[in-house]
Predict the 3D structure of the following.
Amino acid sequence: MPAPSSRTGGTSHTGRSRTAVAARSTAGTRDERKLRTRRSLLDAALELLSGERSFSSLSLREVTRSAGVVPAAFYRHFPDMEALGLVLVEESFTTLRELMREARSAPLPPSHLVRRSIATFLGYVEEHPLHFRFIAKERYGGSTTLRFAIRSEIRLWVSDLAVDLARFPNLRAVSTDDLQLVSGLVVQAVVHATELTLDLDPADERERAQVRFQAERQLLMILLGAAAWQTERPSTRA
């Protein structure tokens, strides 16, 4: 007597399972392709900016040509070139802020925290030079949208740092407003060290160590000055 059939409506359970697996696999492959294309467009823009060019001088067509995709494919990922630029700005800062928060969270004396923070920051810059050359140029570049986005990211960085500095025992008497000023000075010093690092020969370890050393000294001087600073209180008049 023949075995009972497992088919329902003409389609077996095994057949449906294989179809579902194939569909998920196809969707996964499609998503992976989209991510690769998006990454190729971002990397192509960074490579084109590695020289003296500014972001506003790039055209959509040359970015897509460098990425190896047709111009129409660009619009599946970004509405326009400025949207691509904003993603590059976000990429440059988001991971960095997380790394810096982690570096500052260690239970170490201030001088050790400064050294650890500078090493973390400049190490990240050395690993991602194209991103930070892009940021260094576009801070004062032709795109108002990108300038404002970079300024906003730097403000977030300053605010994050001010919150962490408030935990330092010798800075607890410094007002919130003054801690923001101190954080701004620290960030300016680190940005300057970043620009110096980008101009160095990557193989010149002596010069790189000198930039790190000078940055550490600058930050320690700023923090020592802040610790001695007397926050002015609003005067009360009768």
Remarks:
- Confidence is low (pLDDT under 50) at residues 1-8.
